[in-house]
Task: structure prediction
Amino acid sequence: MSVRKSDLLSAHARAEIDQWVSRYPADKKQSAVLAALREVQHENGGYLTTELMDAVADYLDMSPIAVYEVASFYSMFELKPVGRHSIAVCTNVSCMLRGSDTVLAYIERKLGIKLGDSTPDGKFYLKKEEECLAACCGAPMMQVNHIYYEHLTAEKVDQVLDSLE
Amino acid sequence: MSEELVNIEVNGIPLKARKGAMLIEITDAAGISIPRFCYHKKLSIAANCRMCLVEVERAPKPLPACATPVMEGMKVYTESPKALAAQKGTMEFLLINHPLDCPICDQGGECELQDVALGYGGDVSRFTERKRVVKDKNIGPLIATDMTRCIHCTRCVRFGDEIAGLRELGATGRGENMEIGTYVAHSVASELSGNVIDLCPVGALTAKPSRYQGRSWEYVQHAAVAPHDSIGSNIFIHTLRGKVMRVVPRENESINETWLSDRDRFSYEGIHSDDRLSKPLVDGVEVDWEIALDATVKGLKDVIVRQGADAVGFLVSPTATMEELYLAQKLAHGLGVTNIDHRLRQADFSDQATAPVFPWLGQELEELEKIKAALLIGSNVRMEQPLAGHRLRKAALAGGRVMFINPRDFEFRFPVVAKVVADPVGMVAALAGVAQAVAELKGESVPADLAGLTAGVKVSDTERTIAANLVNNAPATVLLGNLAVSHPAFAQMRALAGFVARCSGARLGYLPEAANSVGGWLAGALPHRLPGGKPAPAAGLDARAMLDSPRKAYVLIGVEPELDCWDGAAALKAMQAAEFVVSLSSYASVAGYVKVTLPVATFAETSGTYVNAEGRWQSFQGASKPLGEARPTWKVLRVLGNLCGVQGFDYISSEDVLAEVQGVGGSIQPDNSLGIGQPGWQLFQADGLLRVADVPIYAMDPLVRRARSLQSSPLAQPAEVRLHPDVAQELGVVGRDRVQVRQNGVAVDLPLVLDDSVPRGCAWIPAGLPASVVLGPAVGPVIIQ
Result:
């Protein structure tokens, strides 16, 4: 038997992808690529490797480059190893006017890392270039592991980050 | 097809336009120029460069002409203040990140961005911020990249997707960080990859072999015809101070459209190969033409006087021009020699008497893309005739049913509806099965002369599907490829294919191998026929027989027998045993058997004519002078004719020769007469492991074998053995890097590759490569240990 690149996918990932594929017309399998990448990234500790993207491409009958395009386009996909907890501070105009720069500087100081880096213990990842997260009424805000925290102050940031394992 | 037309007005000029057409198609046809980068008539519409914005009456904003369908009564202004302001604005944005390095850019002088910027760009840049810089990618030896210059038109991306059928380039990242590339570094592996060089409107993708060799305005452009496959692609040869610098496509919608295969584009490098000959050689020593010609005449006459004319054999390359092929046969016949052939890779000549005057495609190239069903027998069309493969791909994507009977599961970039992958024995059996199935479907019986082949054949489901598709779809075609011609039972396959085509209502066609394979038949470079297909009074020996029963003297015209013949080992042996071998060649032979080498011109240095697969005659002029003392082959043959005292060799120009050959062959209508079977025929049989050889895409003729860049590209195949994993298991060679291959008592060590595209019972060992020449025929028993 020849080895297929999609052999890398776990049974659970396959089941999850299949479930998404079933929602689209039979000849539009590639519509499931976002969901597939999300699942595969989740199983892989928060980031994608070229091998995993090739596996998704093979599984969905896409050319690998088409998967790389998607994965590199969306900021929720990481293409290199990152910390367990992803912190995304919005720095768009509303948040900026409400002091997001100070929040960001505080987090950088607190964690001892720069924007775009992960802490050496692999706990936190300070995500670069997060676009507007559509929570301007709660500015300044950040997203930590898919949860929004609004009206940020130094105390609130401490509270959120210190509560994480 | 009736077309609905609408009336539109562009810049006050009333125009009729096909309903549903995009505005830019209509203005292009009317000669109204609209600037564009991303739009290309052969690619899908992306509308992402925004350069073609025009003003349309009653539209609130300028619209992109490439993505705006025409509508009745539409009034368009391409040069109004509003349109010009939009175009100028787009241009300014495009130039924001584009480096202003035209003086050091290879595209400078033939750059669409440069041209359009001249017309629509500002004098001064208002952008004072930092420009973005993009790292260059290494995508192989053919295409150079300068990605900072890229304007993201995505023509190259769409080309891969839509034309090459292999999406290797893409746009990764987003916004300011978007880059065109392969993401994972690798060489682009397409037989048509070079076309992105022409498509790229800026200097991001340029030709690596000719990079920084000259400026486009210094080049002199010569119209010519590509010298490799039987498509006869139209090309321009660009020369600088008399030296061939590069080759680009010359648009011809009915032949190569706007494309060119990489083989035709980059093979010119072989012209400047290190072993190119500039002076005649006798026994490896440079001599004057006079001495070399005298030695040739003396050598030939000597053999003829002592051993008779039958002791001489002429092998002529199927890439020789009409003029050369014609003069070669005239010289041979003048000397009384009937042993002449150009069918170097054919194995089975048993039915040559009933072969058509010239085997042709059976249809025009343009018709291939409208085919509803096609059965290709023994053809890796993608590598053998890349642009015929492109036409078939178009047919397949439009729902045409393309099917194969092949000795290997080749990779095609289009859907294949049915395929039989079998060893050479199985191929004939499968074709017999298809013949039987077609006969059953049409309620006919297989004719008596083929009954021996179909008797007792069990028709498989796949064969029945193939038959049904041919019968139920029109237009349909049955095509014989290079691997059918090199099959030891070619006559059986031709007869069966002929019956399948006739009975199912399909056209029978051939995909001739080389640039002038068709011309070789018409010009009479054949042992059994004279020019124009008239039967020869006495048939001589064919290409294979000339080697199997060696001659005393050989005349080689553009041929390297050990690499170009069906049985390389036999060819080498025959040459080594011969008393006298004269070679009209552009290159010095390393084999050592050549007594006299007469240096001749390459395709770019001679005038001549090729006849392509459609039977289309295309003449061309030399683009540069032959290197050193090399001379066009037709002139060398003319002199040899005169020196040998043969009558009728008083030509002044190659046009005189052409007129003569056109007189006998120019008006012959193509007709692929059907092969005639033999009542006593039994299905082709062979025991044990069979070697099957193809000729890799970049090994087909002496010129391309010397094209350096092509030889280092991913499609250049090394000499190796490919075995099905199960066969390797049986032979106990799994896990070995190299194996010993024995054929006809000769053994060589070759790398082993396990490959389940090779059928069981076969060992795939390519021909045309130095490492495998000592092995025997392209199809024959082989032992692997």
Q: What stands out?
A: Residues 85-163 of chain A form a domain with the Glutaredoxin fold (CATH 3.40.30.10). DSSP finds seven helices and four strands in chain A. The radius of gyration of chain A is 18 Å. The longest strand of chain A covers residues 85-89.
